Amino acid sequence: MIKKKLPKVLIVTGGLLNADEKSVWNALKKQIKQIRAAKSHWLETKIKLVTSELILNSKLKKKSGKVAAYFNEHVSSIPELTEVVLADLLKREDLEFEVMTYDLLFSDSKKANVLLKECQVVFASSTLLHDLSELLPLIKMLKTENNKIVLGGALCGSLQKQWEGDTMIDIIAVGYGEFLVSVLADWIKSGFKNIKAPIQGRLIQKTHSLFLFSGVPESKNLDFLPTPDWRVAEDYHQKKFKHIYYESVRGCPYRCSFCNYPFLFDDKKFRLKSADKIAADWKYYHEELGVMHITCLDSLFTMPKNRLIDLCKQLIKSKSKMTWTCYARADDLADEGTVILMKQAGAHQVQIGIESGNQFMLDQMNKRCTVEQNMEAIRNCRKHGVSTLISLIVGYPGETEQTLNDTLEFMRVAKPDFHFLATFSVRIEEVPMFNVYNKERFGLEKMDNPYSFAPYWRHHTMSCSEVGEHVRKLGMTLCKERISLDGALFYQNIINFHPSMREDFLDYQKELGEGNRILKPLFNGLNNGVDRNLKKDIEKVFPVSNQVPAETSLQ
Questions:
Q1: Which of 131, 282, 354, 445 falls between 20 and 30 A from 315, CA-CA?
Q2: CB neighbours (10 Å) of residue 33?
Q3: Where are the beta strands (DSSP E) in 329-455?
Q4: Which tens digits make up the pLDDT trace of 180-212?
């Protein structure tokens, strides 16, 4: 009896735009598709315009010395962890698969179409996509007359309560992929006839798509999850990976008011792998696969502190030669002994959510951290050779010129290695800031718009019509005063950054901040035009004034 050949799966991951976009034409095609699908997009356009100014200046500027070496160094691409996990799980289910990124739809459409014809089902990831204006045009390019599309990833979790799905998407998978792939594999093997939720999960048929929920583990201990086998990825990519991604937690134990990390995976509990499990996984990756650097994708790696200390001691004892990067809490790093231990264990860089240099703002965000702890964390890392990448949020409810000045003064003193400037966002509904109490307290009004990563908003002390220029002004000041390096500009090769490069990079960035004589007036004109359109749009959405009464003080 001839065994019937099972359908092949096409794994598709990536974002719309990549940090290392090589083709301006492809980038333009992507933007055109996204803009056509977007709605009320002027704030989004402003953010992109502000972000692109330094990057475009850099692409046109001649480089030399350490700067040229940094930007010219070949950076080997690494597959997303989502791709590796799915490939490993599908292999365990004896299902054939192919992999590609969304970029292939634009850079090599012929190859993409061959893969789409060859595969009867698509597993599409939304993890690096921001909103429906990015997602749906890509899904349309993936959809054929004969294939089934399964969509998973973080965006699905964020939208699942407000979204009815789409006719192009057969199944929207929410939660733990480790629980869902076996269910989806059975569905594929049944000829797409039978699907059953995991024991702890559920199925909900909405207007356009079937929503498949994984449910959550019984235990907070994640040691039972299979270790992603990067050998699988090495086989089909036909290359070795010296740098890989790793995940050891799900969720977050904190409840910062702007953050949805604690609610991802349709879960509200903080779950984590043990120090023993992490150490064993890393030892395997290093000794068996030759991995030399690990980027931890966890929302927070330094918590709980006893796990961090235990892991560091195990890595030191094993004399591991690997280095690693992680997200960290400033209050953990304010303890100098912890930073020393992390450095000895191979910590190369930490990413810290500083968010503001004003204590009132930190309190409004429920950061449970002080300005002094933020400062001490950066000082300790600099002292012991751990590079820092910090994030700042501009425009959060309560933000004023004074709080922004306090943030700038903080940065002038702290001088972290890198910064990311984030505009206050109301895209994700499931965050504490948007409960009734907070919205009333700050007079926060927001637009519900899943077709933009930057829906419009305003509160008593600021409107999104102003926030873009605040971000631009702060970013340019950080460049011109040689305070810290723009993370978006240097991110592509950031794991190879060394403190000895800092001064040369700051000089180079200062020149970029002063502007190209042709591009500077062009960007000024574009920003002015976008600001006018944004203001007009916001006046239509929020026609009534929302200014805080003069006698009222938020601080």
A1: 354
A2: 20
A3: 347-355, 387-394, 418-423, 445-446
A4: 999 999 999 999 999 999 999 999 999 999 999
Please tell me the number of Cα atoms within 13 Å of 62 on its side-chain side.
0
Q: How many CA atoms lie within 13 A of 196 on its CB side?
A: 7
Domain count of the fold of the chain: 1
Considering the domain boundaries, does residue 506 fall inside one? no
Q: What is d(CA 427, CA 260) in angstroms, rounded to the nearest whole number?
A: 10
End-to-end CA distance of the chain: 78
Structure tokens at 339: 């930073």
User: Are residues 451 and 137 in contact, defined by beta-carbon separation less than 8 angstroms?
Assistant: no
Q: Using CA atoms, how far apart are residues 505 and 65, in angstroms rounded to an integer? A: 10
DSSP-assigned letter for residue 5: P
Q: Which residue has the tokens 């190209």?
A: 516
Distance of CA 552 to the CA centre of its chain: 37
Strand spans (E) along 441-549: 445-446, 457-459, 462-463, 485-486
User: Residues 238, 72: contact at Cβ < 8 Å?
Assistant: no
CATH of the domain at 87: 3.40.50.2300
In a domain, 530, yes or no: no
206, part of any domain = yes
258 in a domain, yes or no? no
The answer to whether the CB of 223 falls within 8 A of the CB of 248 is no
- Identity at 131, one-letter amino acid code: D
Residue 431 CB coordination number (10 Å) = 21
Q: Does residue 478 contact residue 414 with C-beta atoms inside 8 Å? A: no
Range of the domain at 84: 9-20+77-175+177-213
- What residues form DSSP beta bridges with 324? 294, 347
CB crowding 475-501: b at 16 or more within 10 Å, else e: bbebbeebbbbbbbbbbebbbebeeeb
pTM reported for the whole predicted model: 0.93
Strand, helix or coil for residue 27: helix
pLDDT per position as a tens digit, 422-453? 999 998 877 888 889 889 999 999 999 999 99
